[in-house]
Amino acid sequence: MRGGASINLPLPGSSGGSHHTDPTFSPFSRAGRKLGLVVLVALLIVYSLTRSGSGSVEGGLAQRREEEVGGLKEVGEVYPEEKEREEEVVDYRRPTPDEDDDEEERPSTSSGGSLSKTLLAKDGTTFTSYLDYHFPLTSPSQPAPHLWLTLSDGHWATTGTHALHTFVQRLNSEREAAGRGDGRRTELVVLCLDEGCVRNCEERGVYAYGGYQFTRPEKILVATWPKLAGLIEVLKHRDVFFVDSDVAFKYDPYPYMEKYMKTHDLIAQENEAFDHFNTGWMWMKKSAVTSEAWNQVLKRDLKKVSRDQNNFNEILGTTELRHCDPSDCLSPTSRLPLKMDFTALNGLKVHILDAGVFRSHHFEVDLPMTQRHESVSLHMTCGDDALTKEYVSKAQGFWGDVKGYYADPPKLLTIDHLSGNRTALIQKMKILLMAAHYTSRALLPPSHATFTDLPPLDSSGNPTIPVRHIFSSFPLPHLQSALGVKIVEPSYPSLASQFLVGASVLGKGRRRKDEGWWRGSEEERVGLALEMHEVAELDMRHVRSFAELHSLLSSPSFSTARTIRLMNLDVSPNSKLSTPTNWAHWTMPTTLSNVKPCYRVWDPPSCEAICRFEGRREVTVPEGEGWEALERVLSRKEKWEVKEMEERVKNREGKERVGLMLEDQEAEEEEDAVEEEAVAEFGHLEQEKGGGKKGGWEKVYD
């Protein structure tokens, strides 16, 4: 304003950009000063608003990015759909009691704060933010890893999920040592269904995110929501492997998948059931189309509760690909295997994996012709329950060194074979469990059991097969859980020795090259592997009671053996006198009263009936009837011992009575001898005067 400069301001009522130029107006006049003050105040207000507004804009951009990337804050951002859809679901990001209703007070996903490896995410932190923090897509030092997502609850986090984590760690170590791959690691991230899962994953050092349990719409199943929400969110920005926690791996899967990852959008496992492929093991390339396919699954689930696998296959149109031409069909119900390569209805290019390489448990029933010698993984589909799934995975050789399972092998107790009628097999199993418990050994069962008293026909009218897998003969994992006796798989010695000699997960016949996986020397490791095949045999024909069996098992000749095998348990002793001492007559504790074969064992196992139960799927121990103290068990006498003791007592009492009779007879004989000596010595006897015999003969002395 120096130099008498004037300010030309538009006046109200002036048009366009014209200005009023009254020469009498001066900024130094009263009116000018007044107007200048007004302008100054206005400028200050604008400046203040601009400063505060910029902060709001920055916050708004951060929130907008959170909505666009995370995809879980506002329904409209993730699922921009018709009014019909909006009416069904208004907002499924419901605040929990621990959260503030004001979204702005929640930590921003772009705040740069630290996020722990296991995150419950009650504060609303999105899954994308969690992944971006731990596995940034733009890291200059390391390429983004192969991301494996899985679901888990508190129990599975300690079993199948832990086994997956163990395999992934070993896979990374071996691939890096062998120089295999493009340097990308594999990272397993668990989508937790409950807080127990988050805790257990934290204890095991597993990446875990638990935020989806607080955002689930009521119509969506607990175990479905994290999978749907996670895939919709992540597939916009990352390629994803999804793997169920009941999938167990033996070898590296990448050599069977990498070439298709360059040419296809989706790679999945064959299912051969319900016209679907299996969504429990698949790889998906990031794209809006793939993400939207899972969005469509969500929309269907909100209208009608169903399995995500069913809906996803319907969206892709896999059912139609299995129908065969009527002229080629063997029967009206014939179906074709799913095509190895096809383009789905939504345009995704799909490759289906070899069913023999990526195998499912139910192929045991549905695809008996499937080859097994090249199997990389085993998916325990429809496998009864969690305990059974884990045990069958171990029995088929698909388990890892979880918590030193193979690195620290226990001493074992086994039997040469398990055969007989059901009563005999129950007694044998009780003896094995009892002996294993009281000698602190793990039970190593045979691979099969033979029942000799099954009905000739099963429930379907087919001839009964008397031989069953051991896990379809007795509920072994449930017995282990109830009784506290460790029960390993039949092939445990072989699998443990393979691990100890360094068999590699990179392929058959290979040895691992990574270092630091064993705690001691190579000599100790190989020695332990050899020891797994050393067996001491104990002939049961000479054992008359559990006390005698325990004494033998605890003796120096047997107690140091890695494995003890009970032999001839089905051969009765030769001596007739010792027949009652046979193991079949031994008294078993009430702790084992509920040990019995699988229900309806004469019916063949099926997809969801590996081992049937009558009622609840559990083995119980009678209340207050846990394992007794060993001293009390050993002091208990068998029936034959009690009977023998009774006979001994009777014999002793009889001998005592005979002895008394002999003593009386000897006394009388001594008296007679004395009389005869008296007659011989004195030569005559005289009757007492008065006639008759009054007191017998009297001695007369000259």
UniProtKB/TrEMBL annotation:
Question: Which ranges does the record mark as transmembrane?
Answer: none
Q: Which InterPro entries match?
A: Nucl-diP-sugar_transferase (IPR005069), Nucleotide-diphossugar_trans (IPR029044)
Q: Acidic residues bias located where?
A: 663-679
> Which residue intervals define the domain Nucleotide-diphospho-sugar transferase in the entry?
187-390
Q: What would be one Pfam family of this protein?
A: Nucleotid_trans
Residue ranges with Low complexity bias: 108-118
Stretches for region Disordered = 1-25, 53-118, 659-702
Q: Supply the name of the protein.
A: Nucleotide-diphospho-sugar transferase domain-containing protein
